[in-house]
């Protein structure tokens, strides 16, 4: 298979003629996509690969909503096998595709569904039958074998089933989809908030946006506009006179400071609070809760003391050793579910894909909404959306996102055991893209916890739309380690300001970052986390 640089050369020669209109200076496109989460990113990539003039608009930073506020599970579909067979099938099929096209983002750690004495055995029997029906390879094993495979699991287990779960870095997956879209001609705008649509009769002709960094208003036009704004899609649809009733299902999670479990651990029971433990990089995440919140609260979520208690209890039941493991932080996200008023907490709402052609549904031409689904099914969501876009535009171009690797996914055979640690860390995050992080004067480590070098930061600023330290965190994991930015926040602010040529903004960037880190530490601020918070406060004082 050709490398991604060769693919770009090939596409510019053979793709649909629309591709060649990308280089003009007009503000007109074939398609505008609203929302820079993983669904919008995947759709933008698919559109660009098919040669469409593509613009992606995001009101903040990429993966700042549900795409970056989840437990990082690459679903096998097993969690939905009993209640939602269609979603389960979609998950297992996409799981296998993502492992191939995004290998640098995936940890193929496997998963265990465990039965504890209070769970009983009836659900496990139904679970195994349902997995088979959905095409998911699920193998029941003896509890003793499970303890060998996963030493951290609760030794009281009475049953265990192995499934092909994996963990995935959602920030990296999102960023690489954006990068590949741009490499194939798409344009991308962050910190641009959609204020209204440009309407001509019953047709959406484009968008009016506010650049929230420069306070400048702009207009962009396209034949088709896609609403991929997640839970905020309800608000976007209203601007076009369309009604979508979303169910804002808040889910809170906690991050432990060490990777305790090798495999994903799930409770083999009807879905409930705190029933999944996901290993990611060097940490472990317990999730999730589920409660309905008003749309108006989705931008200012907090983790409550009751949610912390629920999550800790569930974590200790899955892996008792977590009772002596330090907590780093808590965070919350909102699932983009389409409402079902008969389900008060959203647990039983389908995770299936919802694609709305508003021309047929509401009489509004040139407007599409894509919502629902899971992070695991993002690529499929992009495919079905782009299929509809191409039909509307009269373009014949096949989807290739299921076989075309993301940039860096073709990892080097030998990442280099003699390479300096920061280069090895970057290789783990970016695969072969790490080779572009030219290291001429030796590695300069900015973040010791996550081994982020200055060179990696420079690459992110040049190629991955970084404007703040929080943006940088989502690209490189700077500040996400055990010190939560205490030792590296000022260094990161200094390097960013040097790269931007804005030394006067160092304190502003620093304050923004520290306050964001502080919000996540507050819910778990006791013991070692409290000591860390005090160290941060003493180090930065008034900046927090």
Structural class estimated from helices and strands = alpha+beta
Q: Indicate the radius of gyration in whole angstroms.
A: 23 Å
Number of helices: 16
Largest beta-sheet details: 9 strands, mixed
What percent of the residues sit in helical stretches (DSSP H or I)?
25-40%
Number of strand segments: 22
First-to-last CA distance: 50 Å
The residue-averaged pLDDT reads 89
Residue stretches low in confidence (pLDDT < 50, at least 5 long) are 1-26, 412-419
Question: What fraction of the residues are assigned to beta strands by DSSP?
Answer: 15-25%
Task: Sum up the overall morphology in one term.
Answer: globular
Lay out the secondary structure.
Blueprint: H1 4-14, E1 28-34, H2 38-49, E2 54-57, E3 73-74, H3 85-101, E4 106-107, E5 111-115, H4 122-134, E6 139-141, H5 143-149, E7 159-163, E8 166-168, H6 170-183, E9 187-189, E10 192-200, E11 203-211, E12 216-227, H7 233-239, E13 246-256, E14 264-267, E15 276-280, E16 283-287, E17 291-292, H8 305-318, E18 327-338, E19 353-357, H9 358-362, E20 367-372, H10 378-393, H11 421-430, E21 445-447, E22 452-453, H12 454-463, H13 469-476, H14 489-500, H15 506-521, H16 527-540
Parallel strand pairs: 1-2, 1-12, 2-9, 5-14, 12-20
Antiparallel strand pairs: 3-8, 4-8, 5-7, 6-7, 10-11, 11-12, 13-16, 13-17, 13-18, 14-15, 15-16, 19-20, 21-22
Can you characterise this structure?
The protein has 544 residues and is of the alpha+beta class. The protein is 34% helix and 22% strand. The protein has 16 helices and 22 strands. It has helices spanning 4-14, 38-49, 85-101, 122-134, 143-149, 170-183, 233-239, 305-318, 358-362, 378-393, 421-430, 454-463, 469-476, 489-500, 506-521, 527-540; strands spanning 28-34, 54-57, 73-74, 106-107, 111-115, 139-141, 159-163, 166-168, 187-189, 192-200, 203-211, 216-227, 246-256, 264-267, 276-280, 283-287, 291-292, 327-338, 353-357, 367-372, 445-447, 452-453. The strands form four sheets. Strands 5, 6, 7, 13, 14, 15, 16, 17 and 18 form a nine-stranded mixed β-sheet that branches. Strands 1, 2, 9, 10, 11, 12, 19 and 20 form an eight-stranded mixed β-sheet that branches. A hairpin with a 2-residue loop joins strand 15 and strand 16. The termini are far apart.
